[in-house]
Amino acid sequence: MEDLKHSDPEVYAAIQQEVERQNDGVELIASENFVSRAVLEAMGTALTNKYAEGLPGKRYYGGCRFVDEVEDLARSRARELFDCDWVNVQPHSGASANAAIYLTILQPGDTFLGLDLAHGGHLTHGSPVNFSGLLYNAEYYGVEQEGPLAGRIDMERVREKALQVQPKMISIGASAYPRDFDYEAFRAIADEVGALLWMDMAHTAGLIAAGELNNPMKHAHVVSTTTHKTLRGPRGGMILIGDDFENPFGKVAPKSGRVKRMSELLDSAVFPGMQGGPLMHVIAAKAVAFKEALNEEFQDYSRQTILNASAMADAFMDRGYHLVSDGTDNHLMLIDLRNKGITGKQAEAALGRAEITVNKNMVPNDDKSPFVTSGIRIGTPAMTTRGFEPANFVQVVEMMDRVLTNPDDESVTLAVRGEVKELCDQFPLYDFVLP
Ligand SMILES: *Cc1c(COP(=O)(O)O)cnc(C)c1O
């Protein structure tokens, strides 16, 4: 980055410090990961200069022959990765992908049914401060408070709720749900009430691609995802369809009168519905990440991510921590800190001082505000990329326990910070931090 170093030393310095921070800390934010240098390189290219509204072969701008090649590579690799009929790789983010799905399936005011944000759902699944809750009528299902299914979704309750509110769309997917989903049961409910089923696999896409979790592709009518979480690509989104079908709203092509495919409606919802020009440099990086994800090494990585999460969950429970649903099936866990006398906000801050990065998170039936919370969310994708194995994660749990039981003791924080640095030095991330 010699040019940047000279032309803009302030931005350059901030970037260097951020890379250093990433190198020197234990990153446990469940939605984050570390991309390869190849992905970084693809993103930092002249493809950012190119306008390419439309789709490969059908652009509204000239000069698109090479970016067409790039987008076609991204699309065919994504189809292979998820064994699906159709994909659109243009959404700028997970939230943009989701917006295109709402625009396609619902009219303002229509009812849909999604997972409660306070029970692990995402803002774009009906939060009152998000377009999804502002423009549409959001109804929720949640997780059980007690009994054998505590912390888990009870499909019988989802069915009851669906029969009661008669949604036009049912959404699955979460940001803080440590268990897998029963897609067949969701589809049966959707069929029973005449709803379309949408799965948002933003968090788990990589684990699904690697075959480590149930695959929604043949059950959900439409699937959305981010590309930067367990999938380990650049920041971005995409939409997929397992088996494409005629759109159920009767929308026809203007000249031929042919009923359009669902995929065609979604393509139009992304552009011109939601977005202008696609980010071709990011789409190039998506193509690179998808190629990486097709490798056997990525399957090993995904399996290791889950093994590590399960080792970490056991280590926390051994130390008396309460995990929502008593464990995890995937890459993340949700710790309810109420029996430990510390809030999520305090925990996040204390761990942060020791260079262990987590995020505070609401737990089901939380009595604290979203700014304080009673829990923290922890994930293994990022540190697994750095090479951590179960023993390393158990060591991290031991360090976290020391900090969480002495959150105001500066000497504990300092000691742990030293151990964190030592541990991270054994697993170098990027080697381009300049002195
Ligand atoms: C992260 C996430 C998103 C949003 O992704 P952005 O790229 O941040 O917009 C959407 N849905 C779910 C379930 C997520 O976890």
Structural class: alpha/beta
Coarse shape = globular
Query: In the residues, how many domains can be counted?
Result: 2
| DSSP summary, beta strand count | 15
Q: Describe the biggest sheet?
A: 7 strands, mixed
Strand order of the largest sheet: 4-10-9-8-7-5-6
Which topology of the largest domain does CATH recognise?
Aspartate Aminotransferase, domain 2
Specify the CATH class of the largest domain.
Alpha Beta
**Average pLDDT, all residues:** 96
Please give the share of residues in helix: 40-55%
* The CATH superfamily title of the largest domain: Type I PLP-dependent aspartate aminotransferase-like (Major domain)
The CATH architecture of the largest domain can be given as 3-Layer(aba) Sandwich
Gap from first CA to last CA? 13 Å
Q: Strand fraction band?
A: 5-15%
Structural commentary:
There is one protein chain. It contains 16 helices and 15 strands. It is α/β, with parallel strands linked by helices and 435 residues long. The protein folds into two domains: 42-293, Aspartate Aminotransferase, domain 2 (3-Layer(aba) Sandwich); 296-425, Aspartate Aminotransferase, domain 1 (Alpha-Beta Complex). α4 packs parallel to α11 (280-293), α12 (296-318) runs parallel beside α15 and α15 (390-405) runs antiparallel to α16 (410-425). The model has no long low-confidence stretch (mean pLDDT 96). Bound molecules: pyridoxal-5'-phosphate (PLP).
